[in-house]
Write a structure and sequence with these properties.
Number of strands: 18
Radius of gyration: 20 Å
Number of helices: 12
Largest sheet: 5 strands, mixed
Order of helices and strands: EEEEEHEEEHEHEHEEEHEHEEHHHEHEHH
Strand order of the largest sheet: 3-2-1-9-10
CATH superfamily of the largest domain: ATPase, nucleotide binding domain
Oligomer: single chain
Number of domains: 3
Distance between the termini: 32 Å
CATH class of the largest domain: Alpha Beta
CATH architecture of the largest domain: 2-Layer Sandwich
C-alpha cells in the first residue's frame, strides 16, 4: 500500500513528506523543458542550475508564480515526477495532502487538486499554508489563545491569527522573496546599468541582504553584463544599498502583518503581547526581518527552528489523521 504523502507545493521550493518516513524530497520548483519536443529534461535542483544558462529551445520554468498555477500542464507533469521520486507508481496510488496559499482562488484550488489526481494521487486534499505552518511549529492551535504565524514564501506572504483550530484573522499579499530578488535586479540595472540574473540576485540577497541593519556588514562584488557595452562588468554593492533596493517589498510584508494585527479581537491581541508572533518560510530567513517586524509592531517575533520545513511538517502531522482533514482543514476558513 502506498504511503500517504504531504506536499508543500511552493513557488520557490517543493517539499514532500511521506507518512512514517519524514521529508523525502526537497527540491526547487523548477522544471526544464525542450520546447521542440515537449520532453521534460530535468526537475528540481538540476533544472534550477539551468536557469539563465540554456540554449533557446530549452527553457527552465517555474510552473507556479505568486502561489498560483501559471501552467496547468507543466505543473501536472512536475507533480507526477515528484510522486515518482517519492516511490509512487500506478500500482500504489497514495492519498495526498497539498499545502496551498490562502490567497488563491477556488478555481486555482480546483486546478491544484485536479493536477494531483491526474498525476497519480488516489485522493487529494488541501490545507492552507498558515494552518500547516502553525502545526509544524507545534503551536497550540486548538486552544483558546492567540497563535500568530507570518509565512513569507517565494510568491506570497501570509499572516494568520489562529485560535481554537480556526483562522480568526488573515492577511495575504502576493509579495515574497522572488519580489525581493526582482527589486535587487531592478536597482542594479537602474543605478549601475548592469543586468544580473535571478540566481545572482538571490545570491546577493542571501549574502548581504537585510531588512534591518546588522552587525559586521560587508560589501559584495557583483558581476553582470553592462547594458551600454554588452561586456561583463563588476561593481561593489553595500548592504545599505540592498536594504534601499528591497524596501518596497519588505514594507508590503510588514504592512500586511500590521493589517492582520488590526483585525485581532482585543483578548487575542492581549495574548500576542505575551506570546509574540512566529516567522516561517524561506523568505522569513532574510536577515533582520524578524527585528524589523518587531520594531514596527512592538510585539516579539521569533523565527521558528526549521522555517523552510515548518509547512510540510505541519501537513505531515495532518496525514496521521487524514480522514478528519475534510472536516477540519479543507478550506480552513470554511
Amino acid at each position: 500500500m502506498a504511503r500517504d504523502l504531504a506536499i508543500d507545493l511552493g513557488t520557490a521550493n517543493t517539499l514532500v513528506y511521506a507518512k512514517g518516513q519524514g521529508i523525502v524530497l526537497n527540491e526547487p520548483s523548477v522544471i526544464a523543458l525542450n520546447q521542440q519536443t515537449g520532453d521534460v529534461l530535468a526537475m528540481g535542483q538540476e533544472a534550477w542550475q539551468m536557469i539563465g544558462r540554456t540554449p533557446g529551445y530549452i527553457v527552465a520554468v517555474r510552473p507556479l508564480r505568486q502561489g498560483a498555477i501559471t501552467d496547468f500542464d507543466v505543473t501536472q507533469r512536475m507533480i507526477r515526477l515528484l510522486l515518482q521520486r517519492a516511490g509512487v507508481s500506478k500500482f500504489n496510488r497514495p492519498r495526498v495532502v497539498i499545502c496551498v496559499p490562502s490567497a488563491i482562488t477556488e478555481v486555482e484550488r480546483r486546478a491544484v487538486t485536479e493536477a494531483a489526481r491526474r498525476a497519480g494521487a488516489a485522493d487529494a486534499q488541501l490545507i492552507e499554508q498558515p494552518m500547516a505552518a502553525a502545526l509544524g511549529a507545534y503551536l497550540p492551535v486548538n486552544e483558546p489563545i492567540a497563535n500568530m504565524v507570518i509565512d513569507v514564501g517565494g510568491g506570497t506572504s501570509e499572516t494568520a491569527l489562529i485560535s481554537l483550530g480556526g483562522v480568526v484573522a488573515l492577511q495575504a499579499v502576493r509579495v515574497g522573496s522572488f519580489d525581493i530578488d526582482t527589486a535587487i535586479q531592478t536597482y542594479i540595472r537602474r543605478e549601475y546599468g548592469i543586468a544580473v540574473g535571478e540566481r545572482t540576485a538571490e545570491e546577493i540577497k542571501v549574502a548581504i541582504g537585510s531588512a534591518w541593519p546588522v552587525q559586521e556588514e560587508v560589501k559584495a562584488e557583483v558581476r553582470g553584463r553592462d547594458l551600454m557595452s554588452g561586456l561583463p562588468k563588476t561593481v561593489i554593492l553595500s548592504p545599505a544599498e540592498v536594504r534601499e533596493a528591497i524596501s518596497e517589498p519588505v514594507t508590503s510584508i510588514v504592512q500586511s502583518v500590521i493589517a492582520c494585527l488590526g483585525e485581532a479581537p482585543p483578548e487575542l491581541a492581549h495574548d500576542l503581547i505575551v506570546r509574540g508572533m512566529h516567522l516561517v518560510g524561506g523568505g522569513g530567513m532574510l536577515k533582520g526581518l524578524a527585528h524589523r517586524i518587531a520594531e514596527e509592531t512592538e510585539i516579539p517575533v521569533t523565527l521558528v527552528e526549521q522555517p523552510l520545513e515548518a509547512v510540510v511538517m505541519g501537513a505531515g502531522r495532518c496525514i496521521e489523521a487524514y480522514d478528519q482533514l475534510r472536516v477540519m482543514f479543507m478550506g480552513a476558513r470554511g
